[in-house]
């Protein structure tokens, strides 16, 4: 299987074939996501929340992103991988921005990068595109700006806000973005922006009018010690509970000496070397 290209993604929009994107941050999750047949993987800075235990994406560093992108790539060698540029890494000079983009591509083996923001970041988007790097835009609720936005709120509720979102989307398209994530945008506004753009939109909490959908892996399968319901998520498995119960059973078996059993143990005449690791 070949990874999709940005040309294929645009064709998918034209053919009304919804684009699927799921986050992954390490080898086994990326491998399982690739095996499940997803179109694109996002190594999101949501890893700060869901795998590093921070309460926002702000503490995530470029070193974190490179490390996790490399691990995800080892699991998903045949999937188009987008890596997030972390907080404040694309706001000073073009040279500094391009160096971090280079690291995600060259050390992390990403196919593309994502940046949050609209018209104000088009200088950086344009510089990346000119350097040959596909850029995924991201507007609406942009978690790296949570302190400026005053919380995780729905975007596009007023006419002015909707107009600004459309202008930002068009500016990103002009700057060469290959697609745009719309996060927590009212469904009418997201559908309107999707119609007005020639590049695909990928929604999260932005309704069915987007050209694709993205969700966080840990939300889809409830991989969290304290999963909280979110209206824009649909969960398809509960591996948090499965893991907790599995570990509880293991602990109980050790305490009661039910594990290891005879089949898990070795005798001198056994020759199990080739099966030692399953
Ligand atoms: O970091 C992330 O997972 C994201 C998606 C929610 C779009 O940016
Ligand atoms: Na992100």
From TrEMBL:
<dbReference type="GO" id="GO:0005737">
    <property type="term" value="C:cytoplasm"/>
</dbReference>
<comment type="subunit">
    <text>Homodecamer; pentamer of dimers.</text>
</comment>
<dbReference type="InterPro" id="IPR003700">
    <property type="entry name" value="Pantoate_hydroxy_MeTrfase"/>
</dbReference>
<keyword id="KW-0479">Metal-binding</keyword>
<feature type="binding site">
    <location>
        <position position="45"/>
    </location>
    <ligand>
        <name>Mg(2+)</name>
    </ligand>
</feature>
<feature type="binding site">
    <location>
        <begin position="45"/>
        <end position="46"/>
    </location>
    <ligand>
        <name>3-methyl-2-oxobutanoate</name>
    </ligand>
</feature>
<comment type="pathway">
    <text>Cofactor biosynthesis; (R)-pantothenate biosynthesis; (R)-pantoate from 3-methyl-2-oxobutanoate: step 1/2.</text>
</comment>
<feature type="binding site">
    <location>
        <position position="116"/>
    </location>
    <ligand>
        <name>Mg(2+)</name>
    </ligand>
</feature>
<comment type="similarity">
    <text>Belongs to the PanB family.</text>
</comment>
<dbReference type="Pfam" id="PF02548">
    <property type="entry name" value="Pantoate_transf"/>
</dbReference>
<feature type="binding site">
    <location>
        <position position="114"/>
    </location>
    <ligand>
        <name>3-methyl-2-oxobutanoate</name>
    </ligand>
</feature>
<dbReference type="GO" id="GO:0000287">
    <property type="term" value="F:magnesium ion binding"/>
</dbReference>
<keyword id="KW-0808">Transferase</keyword>
<feature type="binding site">
    <location>
        <position position="84"/>
    </location>
    <ligand>
        <name>Mg(2+)</name>
    </ligand>
</feature>
<dbReference type="GO" id="GO:0003864">
    <property type="term" value="F:3-methyl-2-oxobutanoate hydroxymethyltransferase activity"/>
</dbReference>
<keyword id="KW-0460">Magnesium</keyword>
<keyword id="KW-0963">Cytoplasm</keyword>
<protein>
    <recommendedName>
        <fullName>3-methyl-2-oxobutanoate hydroxymethyltransferase</fullName>
        <ecNumber>2.1.2.11</ecNumber>
    </recommendedName>
</protein>
<feature type="binding site">
    <location>
        <position position="84"/>
    </location>
    <ligand>
        <name>3-methyl-2-oxobutanoate</name>
    </ligand>
</feature>
<dbReference type="InterPro" id="IPR040442">
    <property type="entry name" value="Pyrv_kinase-like_dom_sf"/>
</dbReference>
<feature type="active site" description="Proton acceptor">
    <location>
        <position position="183"/>
    </location>
</feature>
<dbReference type="InterPro" id="IPR015813">
    <property type="entry name" value="Pyrv/PenolPyrv_kinase-like_dom"/>
</dbReference>
<comment type="function">
    <text>Catalyzes the reversible reaction in which hydroxymethyl group from 5,10-methylenetetrahydrofolate is transferred onto alpha-ketoisovalerate to form ketopantoate.</text>
</comment>
<dbReference type="GO" id="GO:0015940">
    <property type="term" value="P:pantothenate biosynthetic process"/>
</dbReference>
<keyword id="KW-0566">Pantothenate biosynthesis</keyword>
